[in-house]
Amino acid sequence: MRIAVFSTKPYDRTYLERANASREHEIVFFEPRLTRGTVALASGFEAVCAFVNDDVSAEVQATLAQNGTRLIALRSAGFNNVDLESAKRLGLSVVRVPAYSPHAVAEHTVALMLGLNRKIHRAYNRVREGNFSLGGLIGFDMVGRTAGVIGTGKIGEVVCRILTGFGCNVLAYDPKPNAECEPMGVRYVPLDELYAQADIVTLHMPLSKETHHLIDADAIERMKRGVMLVNTSRGGLLDTPAVIEGLKSGKIGSLGLDVYEGEAELFFEDHSGHTLHDDVFARLLTFPNVLVTGHQAFLTEEALTQIAETTLASVDQFARGESLTNAVPT
Question: What are the backbone dihedrals phi and psi of residue 172, each rounded to the nearest 5 degrees, phi first?
């Protein structure tokens, strides 16, 4: 099949070409994001491979379908950027990569926790400037602290396992509890109880209408003063202006982000020579107790290999007319 890959970075090309070495798909890589302005590039391609910040709205899908596309292959687990009702109406199949490496994201999550706790980012900059003072770098022992894990799917489960290994008291919230978590000592509680007790709150929920701005001013008010908040899931889980107010008041003691609600115009590109026009994001960067990475939690060799293999395996199934193992229900 002919596959148009959007939002291509060098690592995407490397791993997809490697996965395609034993296949016969024709893959064409496009650097731009999939948008209303770039969708014409996919004309004549039976499959389109999209990433997290690509626009797979009804309008874009209509053009894709009109120009011959029949399969949308997401090289991500989340599918909040896809209008599923439109896909069903247009007869477009949608597949995703439901599990590539939960360890990659979970380990990055804990890395953010440790970096924030021990002020690694601040210490690194000080030492490079010849400043070896320790003022303002006091952290806390993870052992004995209470961590609240919101969402205990595959990634949340691994986060729970790592945190219990540190000796944390782990509380969890999920409408569908994971049977693997309680045997390791995790206790499921209502959100109010989790907010009230957790020293660290980490998010591992998909983005949906129900979870959009799950962490808003009201949720922050119910948290412990000085709480550490970490989000490596989807930016839309946080009401960012409310989080900024929490940082200003000291209610939020530290913040670790690998995702941001307005990241589509920022992440995965080099803006170092330009002024940031996103005032909300620029404000976040002024806080010394905020650590932001640019949606890199997934970026390990193992995860990239699995993403490429799973994506092309779905294309194989579609080409053969088989049932799609990783289909997103439309």
Answer: -140, 155
Buried b (16+ CB within 10 A) or exposed e, 251-274: bbbbbbbbbbbebbebbeeeeeee
Beta strands, E only, 93-208: 93-95, 146-150, 169-173, 187-188, 200-203
Q: How buried is residue 13: exposed, middle or buried, by Cβ count under 10 Å (0-12/13-18/19+)?
A: middle
Beta bridge mates, 254:
228
How many other CB atoms sit within 10 Å of the CB of residue 226?
Answer: 12
| Residues classed as catalytic | 234, 263, 295
Dump pLDDT digits (tens) for 192-204: 999 999 999 999 9
Residue type, 192: D
pTM above 0.70, yes or no: yes
**Class of CATH domain 102-292:** alpha beta
CA 103 to each of CA 95, 153, 159, 301: distance values in angstroms, whole numbers, following the listed order: 22, 12, 8, 12
Angstrom distance (rounded) from CA 26 to CA 4 = 9
Number of helices (H) and strands (E) in the chain: give both, helices first.
11, 12
Evaluate whether 45 touches 93 at the Cβ level (below 8 Å). no
The answer to whether the beta carbons of residues 262 and 238 sit under 8 Å apart is no
Which of 97, 112, 150 is closest to 305 using CA atoms?
Answer: 97
Q: What residue spans define the domains of the chain?
A: 2-100+300-319, 102-292
Token pair 């941001």: residue: 260
**pLDDT for 207-263, tens place per residue?**
999 999 999 999 999 999 999 999 999 999 999 999 999 999 999 999 999 999 999
CATH of domain 2-100+300-319: 3.40.50.720
CB 268 within 8 A of CB 294: yes
The domains spanning 2-100+300-319 and 102-292 adopt the same CATH topology: yes
Helix axes 154-165, 102-117, angle to 10 degrees: 40
Q: Cα–Cα distance between 258 and 235 in angstroms, integer? A: 8
Identify the three-state secondary structure at position 105: helix
